[in-house]
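User: Sequence in, structure out. Go.
Assistant: Echoing your sequence, followed by the structure tokens.
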Amino acid sequence: MGRFYFVIIGLVVFTACVPQRKYEDMQKAYNDALKRNIDCGKKYNKLQDDSITTARNLKTEMDARKSLEQDTTFLRRSYRDLNANYALLNTVKAKLLGDMRDLEARDSVHKQELSGQLSETKMQLDQKEADLQKKQEAIDKENTDLADLQLKLAGTQKDLDAREKKVHDLEKILNQKDSMVNAIKNSVANALLSYKDKGLSVTVRDGKVYLSVEEKLLFESGKYQVNAVGKQALLQVASALNNQPGVDIMVEGHTDSVPYRGVGTIKDNWDLSVLRATDVGRILTKDGGVSPSRVVVAGRGENEPVASNATPEGRAKNRRTEIILTPKLSELYKVLGQ
């Protein structure tokens, strides 16, 4: 208000020194300049309100991203930059208020300076807003990638758990199988202790029990009917197998490499091995009570020797019948098929 009085007094003094027309022109110019200054002040106040709103929005965005340390650092730096811009605006405002005292002499220059400063400030704010938008998009992408990674990790962990369970189940079944094989071997070996030194042996190979019976215990040379002693041994085998229902049975006949020279329907060693295996299987099932569905018979002839056929001893070992006992693996197949 005091300044206004000084202006009035100045005008009175000034009007005393200048013509009325010139005074009126100067008064009109002053009023126009004052009006423009008021308009600039309103625009500045609106810009300041917009800047405050932008600062508040920035603060909200910064609070929402505290969990992302690196991006939060960027946002805080941006916030400090905006505060610096706001301080610059306050400096500009103070300068404009000071410049109003000599606005008549520098009206054109002041308008250009103010317009340039406002444009630069708006450009800076637009750039900050664009930077914040890019940072927000980067944060959103990181959040999406993190969510996808968490889903993948969850799926991977689930697969690992399933595989671990499957391996555990397989180990359990294999251990049970090994225990069953040993139990079968012990059961058959105990049932045939009296034949241990008479051409009969029980071994375990590849998870199976092999009961190998030499020709001399079962057959006469060149014959395929089991003799009385061999039949008694096979009946004891059948009794042991009836106590092991979870076992599949294969009877394999084997010969040496000496060509078969008999007559009749038997043509060669292969025929002889098949017929011998068939007679053994028949005794196990018909006389020994073993279920025929468990028994498979086969003849390999001279094609799978266990010793050299160049010596009498080797040929004697090759003339054998093997009863191969295999635990049923249905549970193992179920686990493998899951």
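User: And one key feature?
Assistant: The chain has nine helices and five strands.
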